[in-house]
């Protein structure tokens, strides 16, 4: 699968940060059952790689589990070997770009400026994460990039919410949006499955 095909499967990609494997499996199951089949598990917690493995093993085969926060080549290989179908990074370095190209691993590198977008394109990436989207210019930035680099498509992430997702998705150069708004933790530090389901169902309405 190419990264463009993955973004077509689901225009809303939950960006997930789990503390434990059982939490990952139960929350991902709620998202999947509500219709969100592309999931990005960030490598922000020591349990993240085990979470990727467990979600791959426990959820139906048509779940597409990616790994986020891929900051270097070692993390790319680690996530790939745990079964992540694709990788996402908040940025891009030459070494990381070369690694994921050599791996032939679907990859969504992050950019926040025109020059970064041009460098990513030079590296052969045309589907890009726009991060952190809201504070880097949001919709206005994407419209401006679209006028000079119409061949690039974006997945804005960072500050996107259930209230703003639809306006991003209405842009020609936006293939999908990502975000953690679907799985916010409550005061007790827990992710409430009922809230996840409600927000996921609302997100699916954008498809
Ligand atoms: O960990 C990564 O790889 C990142 O690039 C950061 C995440 O994509 C954002 O933290 C999500 O943004 P929010 O939806 O505003 O929480």
Automatic annotation (TrEMBL):
<comment type="pathway">
    <text>Carbohydrate acid metabolism; 2-dehydro-3-deoxy-D-gluconate degradation; D-glyceraldehyde 3-phosphate and pyruvate from 2-dehydro-3-deoxy-D-gluconate: step 2/2.</text>
</comment>
<dbReference type="InterPro" id="IPR031337">
    <property type="entry name" value="KDPG/KHG_AS_1"/>
</dbReference>
<keyword id="KW-0119">Carbohydrate metabolism</keyword>
<keyword id="KW-0456">Lyase</keyword>
<protein>
    <recommendedName>
        <fullName>2-dehydro-3-deoxy-phosphogluconate aldolase</fullName>
        <ecNumber>4.1.2.14</ecNumber>
    </recommendedName>
</protein>
<dbReference type="InterPro" id="IPR031338">
    <property type="entry name" value="KDPG/KHG_AS_2"/>
</dbReference>
<dbReference type="GO" id="GO:0008675">
    <property type="term" value="F:2-dehydro-3-deoxy-phosphogluconate aldolase activity"/>
</dbReference>
<dbReference type="InterPro" id="IPR000887">
    <property type="entry name" value="Aldlse_KDPG_KHG"/>
</dbReference>
<comment type="subunit">
    <text>Homotrimer.</text>
</comment>
<keyword id="KW-0704">Schiff base</keyword>
<dbReference type="Pfam" id="PF01081">
    <property type="entry name" value="Aldolase"/>
</dbReference>
<comment type="similarity">
    <text>Belongs to the KHG/KDPG aldolase family.</text>
</comment>
<dbReference type="InterPro" id="IPR013785">
    <property type="entry name" value="Aldolase_TIM"/>
</dbReference>
């Amino acid at each position: 699968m190419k990264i463009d095909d993955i973004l077509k499967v689901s225009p809303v990609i939950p960006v997930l940060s789990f503390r434990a494997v059982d939490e990952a499996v139960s929350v991902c199951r709620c998202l999947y059952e509500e219709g969100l089949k592309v999931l990005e598990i960030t490598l922000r917690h020591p349990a993240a790689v085990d979470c990727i493995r467990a979600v791959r093993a426990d959820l139906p085969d048509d779940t597409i589990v990616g790994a986020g926060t891929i900051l270097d080549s070692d993390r790319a290989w680690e996530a790939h070997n745990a079964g992540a179908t694709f990788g996402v990074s908040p940025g891009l370095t030459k070494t990381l770009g070369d690694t994921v190209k050599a791996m032939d691993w679907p990859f969504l590198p992050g950019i926040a400026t025109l020059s970064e977008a041009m460098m990513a394109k030079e590296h052969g990436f045309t589907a890009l994460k726009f991060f952190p989207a809201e504070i880097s210019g949001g919709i206005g930035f994407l419209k401006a990039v679209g006028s000079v680099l119409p061949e690039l498509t974006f997945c804005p992430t960072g500050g996107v919410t259930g209230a703003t997702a639809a306006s991003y998705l209405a842009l020609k150069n936006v293939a999908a949006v990502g975000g953690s708004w679907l799985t916010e933790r409550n005061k007790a530090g827990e992710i409430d499955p009922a809230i996840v389901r409600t927000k996921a169902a609302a997100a699916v309405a954008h498809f």
